Amino acid sequence: MRTVIIPIYNGQIHLLESLKELKLLSKKSNHQYHFIFVDDGSVDESHNILEKIKSESELRMTIVKTNKNRGKGYAIQEGMRHVPAESVSVAFTDVDIPYGIEALEQGFELVEQGVEFVYGSRAEAEKKQRQYSLYRKIGTHMFRVLLPKHIRRIRDTQSGLKIFSKSAAGVLFPLVRTGRWVFDIELFLIAEAQGVVLRELPVILKASSITGRGGVRILKHGLKILVDIIKIRWYAIRGIYTKS
Fold first, then answer.
1. Do residues 213 and 133 lie in contact, with contact meaning Cβ atoms separated by under 8 Å?
2. Which of 12, 54, 88, 211 has a CA-to-CA distance to 139 between 20 and 30 Å?
3. How far apart are CA 40 and CA 57, in angstroms?
4. Considering the entire predicted model, what is its pTM?
5. What are phi and psi of 181, to 5 degrees?
6. Angular region, 71: left φ>0, alpha ψ -120 to 50, beta rest
7. 2-242 is classed in which CATH architecture?
8. How confident is the model over 73-96, as pLDDT tens digits?
9. Separation of first and last alpha carbons in the chain
10. Where are the domains of the chain?
11. Interval 100-127: pLDDT, tens
12. CA distance 201 to 36
């Protein structure tokens, strides 16, 4: 079984369309899929829509709800606690399925061929067609210079598509200490420290998913992001990520 974790914060606008894609994925694949939707303190109709979907759909799915918004990273960690025992691989992606179901399948296939951690990368697609808003691109470059040198070689740390073997997920996620903006970067730091095998998967962002600013505001969140980057670099220096 393959498990897909989908964190949601006020995602009602995407849910019904995404459901169609997930149904298609389950129908066309030779593998069983289980979907875990984590409602991260939404204040719109996301949770009610999810409950309705669960009651009417044949999809294998679990709904998890947090009592307040705590961040995408935290939501994904919550989802990891509900992965079925029979799952052999697990992914997370965003509620609008921004890279399509084909990329999900390709990632799972690579993991099942022996790669431990597959991450979507928009780097190649960006050479031909814009994959980020200008605002987000500027912000990404500003904070990239703060990353440890060995992480800078990873061309796209922030892509919302990552797939893991279940054993690798069991090593990585218990060591995660952040829940918001630098969660993805922390995963790479832990993977490098643990010797987890990484593979880049070229992906193309849907045009509808290229938004103006997204959820991150440089002026509003910049200092918090900087503090979190300092924290995870300190954790790495202290050897927190090398613990078994």
1. yes
2. 12
3. 22
4. 0.91
5. -70, -30
6. left
7. Alpha-Beta Complex (3.90)
8. 999 999 999 999 999 999 999 999
9. 26
10. 2-242
11. 999 999 999 999 999 999 999 988 877 6
12. 23
